[in-house]
Write a structure and sequence with these properties.
The protein is mostly helical. The protein has one domain. Helices cover about 70% and strands about 0% of the residues. The longest helix is centred in the last third of the chain and has 27 residues. The chain starts with a helix and ends with a helix.
């Protein structure tokens, strides 16, 4: 992604930490949670790789199509699972957004901003609206979960790190914020 180096490195750190936490969530006892966490970990690490500032490392021209294929592959299980819950639809939209950003970057890697034209493309604008809404809604939903989780350190009961709903929502919130930031740099 193109943009200031400091914000790029902050995105790399945010996405890498989120991906790492999702790996921890894969140790959960719930099968569905493990599957979702695996997809989210892949998205987090993929987003971290895409967010490395172009001034530090410019990916070779073949990297963007590879990103598109990898993110497209993450959409397949989300598409199958979308019948069971709306969260899987969000995974599908997220994977689609990453494929879209990869394709745009493959088409214009030398330009300071992915499109180079005037205005915001319709799909970029639609994705920005979706993810901004998702971030706001998830943030609002996170507040009551954190308040009910036990009210302090050690109050979470016997839930492990991978089974804490407030941390899972915070992880998804972080990924949504990172997606908004990446879309803004397009």
């Amino acid at each position: 992604m193109h943009g200031p180096a400091t914000s790029g490195w902050l995105l790399v750190a945010l996405c890498a930490v989120t991906g790492t936490y999702c790996l921890v969530r894969m140790r959960s006892g719930a099968r569905e949670q493990r599957g979702a966490a695996g997809g989210e970990a892949l998205m987090g690490f993929g987003m971290a790789a895409m967010a490395v500032p172009a001034a530090v490392f410019t990916p070779p021209s073949w990297a963007w199509p590879v990103y598109a294929v990898v993110f497209g592959a993450t959409a397949v299980p989300a598409l199958r699972a979308a019948r069971t819950g709306t969260h899987h639809l969000h995974h599908l939209v997220g994977a689609g957004a990453m494929v879209y950003m990869s394709v745009v970057m493959a088409g214009a890697p030398a330009h300071p901003h992915g499109q180079g034209g005037s205005g915001v493309p319709v799909l970029t604008g639609a994705l920005l609206l979706y993810f901004a809404g998702y971030v706001l809604l998830t943030g609002v939903r996170l507040v009551p979960v954190a308040a009910m989780a036990g009210g302090g350190a050690g109050g979470g009961g016997s839930a492990g790190w991978g089974d804490r709903p407030e941390l899972t929502r915070a992880c998804r919130l972080s990924m949504g914020i990172a997606t908004v930031a990446m879309l803004l740099t397009m």
